[in-house]
Write a structure and sequence with these properties.
single chain; Double Stranded RNA Binding Domain; DNA polymerase, domain 1; three-stranded antiparallel β-sheet; 16 helices; 10% strand
Amino acid sequence: MARQAVTLEKRKAKLKSGKAEYWYMRWYSSEGKYCSKSIGRTDKLSKRQARKIAHAKQLEFETATVRRDKTKNYRLSEYVEHYFKVREHELALKTVQLHRQAARYLVEYCGKDKRLQSITRANARAFQAAMAANKITPKGHYKTTVGATTVYMYMKALRKMFGMALEDHLITENPFSKIITMADTESRWHYVTHEEYARMMNSAPYRFKLLISLCRLAGLRKAEAINLEWADIDFETNRLYVTAKDHWKPKTRKSLRTIPICPELQSVLLEAYGAAQDGQEHIVFGDMTNIDRDIKIIRRKAKVEQYGKPLHTLRKSCITDWAKKFPMHVAQYWAGHTNITTTAKYYSQVREDDFKMAAEMRHFEQVYTQNDTQSGNGGAGYVGNKNDKPLTDKGLSKKAT
């Protein structure tokens, strides 16, 4: 117990002006190493004041607001450089770009010399508010409007960055861990029906038909569809495999998965396989520089409602179909999500057809209790029968008399 306490001692030091005596706090780290820190000269700090400082330090250790172990207190810019040095090879290219952009905004707001341990939850909330108000513009960037979804993505990226600092014992809490943003709430998005998909396929050029089908019928991300190769298709088992390539790797480890090929997708792929040129590795071919623009043109020709993130919405529509027909953990695996909450919250939607089906469905076809078997259909436990006729006001008045 004594090794857990913060104690005081005096130490003498030689100065140019003579000798001086200092108060030092002493404690032991979690590994049993001896630690000490000077808190001031004895001629300027009384013993009572020194004890108060030591007691405050003891309370900080007990409440875990400060660590017993001495860790490097990075400057913000130093930690950002350290983070990408450690994690750049683990993350997908798009994720690295997102994290770098989020870090640029935070460094611009806090300053590159801001100490990592001094960033509080209040600082994180203030940063979020400044981002939402478009008051931050990193050096070398044009001033642009940042939407609520972008703010959410940046806050999520910073939460992960500071999460690594917490795991490495560089900070005592993650200031971005409990920040709630607008994008945390459920948002509505356009479900692409089978009829709309058919019209888009009829209006799309041949090479875009493959891309649209892979996103809508296999739930692939845009990058996954573009990097899919014929070697990843197994027509015997009707399965496709999302695998890493030398020039590309999926978003997360969970993105490495096997997905079933439905009959509609199988016919599209078989036709494309028959028309593929010798030596063609990738299923989707051609220039994909302005995909979103091209998909908008296809939707306009097909007279399909305009919506944001055209290919990603096709993927979400596919996952919604899976979630309706299969258990949620199955839809999660096929979607390549790390967390099942992501599948349930953001990738499934209550459709208009669901309301119509529920409104037409009878909950009680014919239900009896044990009393009914003894007393007949008119027993007290009788719930209903599909052949029952609804009572009218006239019928009710007769029963009342």
